[in-house]
Write a structure and sequence with these properties.
Blueprint: E1 2-6, E2 13-14, E3 17-18, E4 23-24, E5 27-28, H1 29-40, E6 44-48, E7 79-83, H2 90-101, E8 106-111, H3 119-127, E9 134-139, E10 142-143, E11 147-151, H4 154-163, E12 178-181, H5 183-186, H6 202-211
Parallel strand pairs: 1-6, 1-8, 6-7, 9-12
Antiparallel strand pairs: 2-3, 4-5, 8-11, 9-10, 9-11
Length: 214
Amino acid sequence: MNAIILAGGKANRMKGEDKAFLKIGNEPLISIQLRPLKKIFKEIIIVTNLPEEYGVIKGVNPVRNTEFSDGDNIISNGVKVISDIIPHQGPLGGIYSGLIASDSFYNFVVACDMPYIDTGLIEYMYKKSPGYDAVVPKINKRYEPLYSLYSKNCLKFIGQLLDKKIFKVNKLFSRIKVKEVTKEEVRKFALGAKIFTNINTREDLANVYADRPL
């Protein structure tokens, strides 16, 4: 299983700044995500429309092309930065690009503005994955599609949605076999529903720092 971080597009910018580089303490958010992810994944793929920006992150090189055939874009620590195959298609397009680039059948997908990475929950979802195309937490009747597990079986259906100019990730779930993870299951893990926190404002960023100063 590999991990895919979605870090491209206007949705991942806050007042013009890429959310991946927002700092909690003295550390960029993308680095905070990479630290726990590296513990359980052999490869991590960062999908972005601006791969050249990621040269500033220690140990990460920008992509050389979009065909995923250039060894220079594979980092020694297992992090790969790639461009979206079809730019500006939102998170669904990022998932599509990441799944194609990955050599793993199952892949954990997370948005770059979600600071709470719970490896226990990720491993739990992976154990639930056999026989399913995706494993998706559902909290208060709402899916958390950007903290979920997707298989390569999803590629066909994502492609169909993109062809029809349908970009909402939730539209995928009626077309595939989904294993839902309930709020009760998520509560078994230390971070609980906090896991799905994402950063949209400076206040959000301050609250995360107050909660877990680095």
